[in-house]
Amino acid sequence: MEKKQTEIAARVAVADSSPIPEAMGSNSLFTRREMLGLTAMAGFAGLTGIAPEAVAQTAQKRPRIACLVSYWGLPTSHADWIIDKLMDGYWWKGAHTPSRVDVVSVYINQFDTSLLGQKVCKAKNIPIYKTVGEAVTLGGQELAVDGVVIVCEHGNYPTDLKGHWLLPRWWIYQQVIHVFEQSKRSVPIFNDKHLSYNWDDAKWMFDKSRELNFPLTGGSSIPIYYRKPEIEIAVDTPIKNSIVVGDTADEGATFHAVDVLQAFHDRRKGGETGVRSVQSIRGPETWNWVQRTPWANNLLEAVRKNFDLKPGYFEEGGGQDQRRPLRPNLCIVEYNDGTNAAVIPGRGVGWTYAGEIEGLKDPTIISMLDWPGPISQYHAANAHEHWLIEMMLTRKEPFNAERLLLSTGIVNNYMDSNWEDGRYSAVGRRVETPFLNMKYHSTHGPLFNTGPRPPNTPYIRGFES
Length: 465
Fold this sequence. Notes:
34% of the residues lie in helices and 17% in strands. By secondary structure, the chain is α/β, with parallel strands linked by helices. It folds into two domains: 32-223, 3-Layer(aba) Sandwich (Rossmann fold), CATH 3.40.50; 228-378 and 401-436, Dihydrodipicolinate Reductase, domain 2 (2-Layer Sandwich). Helix 9 packs antiparallel against helix 14. Residues 1-11, 15-28 and 30-59 have low confidence and may be disordered.
């Protein structure tokens, strides 16, 4: 038995549409001449020590990227985190890594309030176009870029009764697809966070990637954030049950936790089999369910002991942020192969995965910790930049895009579970999900960042702050 446990342990430790903005008068708010000007090239060459002729030759070979965003007004907005590093490079495996793509166009849905984005683009000589179509055609008639990055995570958008934040991901995506179809060719798309708050829209987005034969990636940055310990779950690990403990304050936070769950869980023996049902429980019944569900309670206790927390820490709201209280809520996932999982609310442990693995006495616990603060938060999505750039260069998805769709579907049905016929119930209904019967086999190696953390210094965007 001891030999069997050692062998398994070795396998585990592999290392609605939003309104179109008013026309802004011209195709581009900053001209392409500015973007491609000799001054910018000379400045780049001077900084790097590369001859201008070599820069020009390299620039022709680098993928040209269109960035389409909802809002870019604060340093904490995902657009600032992601696009700045596509321009200036990012921190990967302990060192600054130059970007290997060129951002050649930007579209901002909430342009008037996105003053930071306007300032960055002006400093970098990158044109901001007034429509999605013009951004991906560079003001022409045909697709004129080699990749598309969609970042719709912030902005002044409404929330519906169920708590869905009505961000314009699908609205932007479908306009890109229109250009693909008109041009009779397609390029890779990165979509930050989940595909859409609406399942039908999300499924359409995924299906179009297969119909038009382009790679698609995105999702949460947390599964590829720094880990403790620095291990990956091996392909075909015999996982029986899993939990993720983390911030589940709203739809976006819950997606982070669900995507962490799925990133580990889809590496179980036999591969992903799809989800049979999803259920949401909110309020005090959250902890009653945990206590009467042995596998979930045992895994939560293992997490508590791993962090040396007092008994009842999670149930008593330990690690609360009074500015953003974490109310008890629970996402329960039942898979077609009989495996079970749950996302459980808790602060003070980052995002922590705990898995019950056949043949092992103790749960496997892997944490994504030390979420960066006001300055170093610009490095939160470094692994996102790395893998999206890899996809733009290779046209290969870093992980199965089915995972992105499945995580989206789990969250969408979790949000719907507490509602039926216009009535709310804290103990949500068990939603049968035959439409989540997708199968795939995750075979990629470790994708998470490693090595020394980035320096805690202000991020440079190309202009004086």
